Fold:
Amino acid sequence: NEYLHAYHSVLHLQYNKETNTLALNRVASGGTIASLLGPVAEAIAQLLVEGDATLVKQCEHPDCILWFYDRTKAHKRRWCSMALCGNRYKAAQFRKRSSS
Ligand SMILES: [Zn+2]
Structure:
């Protein structure tokens, strides 16, 4: 709540030349730490209210600090990114098996 309350934002109308469309975005006003952390605090608050906390998981790679929201159907996702941590883990397992 501290960061949610400290976050001040304004609406910003933005024109996209390539698609000839307008978009209404919310942007931080001011350059304080609170305004930088505000969008993060909002996203977390929204997740806590609307999301399923059991689907927030920590990446299983031992060297990774990332968490993710498991949107897979079976809810068995293990990695923040298959391309990064999943493959790193599989390559390490393969090296282990090959060397023994
Ligand atoms: Zn990871």
Summary: The chain is about 40% helix and 20% strand.
